[in-house]
Amino acid sequence: MKTNYNIYCDETCHLPYDHQSAMGLGAVWCERADASALSQAILALKAQHKALGELKWTKVSPARLPFYLALVEWFFSEPRAYYRGLAVQHKERLNHTMFNDDQADVFYYKMQFSLINRILSPDGCYAIYLDVKDTQSRKHIRKLRDVLCNNAYDFTGEMVQSAQNIHSHESALMQLCDFFTGALGYRHRELKSSVAKNAVIHAIEQHLGRSLLTSSSVTERKFNVFVFTPQVASGAKAT
Length: 239
What we know:
The protein is of the alpha/beta class. It contains 7 helices and 6 strands. It has helices spanning about 35-50, 65-75, 95-100, 105-115, 135-150, 170-190, 195-210, and strands spanning about 5-10, 25-30, 80-90, 125-130, 160-165, 225-230. The longest helix is centred in the C-terminal third of the chain and has 17 residues, at about 170-190. It is globular, with a radius of gyration of 17 Å.
């Protein structure tokens, strides 16, 4: 019998003209049977630390640092939850005219494919949840599911069973993905201004035993990171 999994995806600095040097995409994934218990554990940790409101990387502050550090400790000690992140460096090198049919969204969904495809296994069945991006999200997510299915020869949709958009406030695991993906993007933009955010990143890297600036081993399962660096192409446009 195949195992059912949920995959929760989010991104940071993915817009083409946001003047950011790097973007990050991430996915938190777990067995579907564990999703409720994991969500409840996050909510219990929030209640314990009186961390009200939605968990978001942009809200990381010194006042709640004990909560964020406890969350990192919880994740790395929790064997049922996993994270995969993809960092895109040097966004200014991206040439969407040459490689992406002059559409930044084409590149975005190529990266989403690269992120998710490594998680999929023929032994599993998957439901994919992406944070709402814009009014075109529903159309693009159907295309993403089709490409994932075709790549895995899953022509009946038995492996990638569904793909849909949800709002982050609807899911504690989506919020956890926002938290880790925000940390990944912050590290790759080489920002230093927030003492609390730097402390969180340091805690993650201590657990990993390496920098978030480097790709993981392909066999790393708990917290896997892939770093993508675009080639310099003639006529590249800043994005």
